[in-house]
Write a structure and sequence with these properties.
By secondary structure, this protein is an alpha+beta fold. About 15% of the residues lie in helices and about 35% in strands. It is built from two helices and eleven strands.
């Protein structure tokens, strides 16, 4: 929770705040996120407006996860910007809109006395800044689809061409038909004398 006591309710009043907070649980995605309890450096600019307090800020923290191609551990630095209006409980103005589709409902964040809870805003800012498919490097070759060998450590890794079991029966049938055709050609009787081409 952050306080706004020094601002009062004087429109135009400004306050800058810097703080290090601990990351909450489950901040991230399945493959990349902020470890619970990790330090999050938060820099805020609080501005008193007619309907509440406008909070503009930046959060910096460290991310841990794994590469989606080679599954190796990776670490990243995260920096995300955000801006949110915390309305006074007696204000009629709306805060933010959470766009959830055609039936989007307006979601307003309110001050609790002179305090405001920044966690939901930080959570949204960090998660939305994360890459959908984090990789250890852009040209990561990933894993061998046949055996799972990491291709980075074995770039010359190869496998003999394997027959897809879905096509094995068709290939066998094709071989059978081909050999039958060859046998028929060998057993074909010679043409009658009259059919033989004549030399001029």
């Amino acid at each position: 929770m952050f306080g706004t006591h020094e601002l009062g309710r004087r429109p135009g009043a400004l306050l800058k705040v810097s703080r290090t907070a601990e990351a909450p649980a489950d901040l991230g995605t399945d493959v990349l996120g902020v470890p619970e309890g990790a330090p999050m450096e938060v820099s805020l600019r609080l501005e008193s407006v007619m309907d509440g307090v406008l909070v503009t800020g930046t959060v910096r923290t460290s991310l841990v996860g794994e590469c989606v191609r080679c599954l190796e551990p990776l670490r990243r630095e995260c920096e995300a910007d955000f801006q949110e209006l915390y309305s006074y409980p007696d204000a009629d103005a709306g805060g933010r809109s959470a766009d959830t589709g055609d039936d989007a409902e307006e979601e307003t964040l309110f001050l609790e006395g002179e305090l405001f809870d920044l966690e939901p805003v930080l959570r949204d800012a960090v998660v939305l800044s994360l890459p959908l498919q984090p990789v250890c490097r852009e040209d990561c070759p990933g894993l061998c689809p046949e055996c799972g060998t990491r291709l980075e450590t074995d770039p010359d890794h190869r496998h003999d061409d394997a027959v897809d079991i879905r096509w094995a029966a068709l290939r066998e049938l094709s071989g059978t038909l081909g050999s039958a055709g060859a046998d028929a050609e060998e057993e074909k009787p010679p043409r009658a004398g009259g059919d033989e081409p004549q030399e001029k």
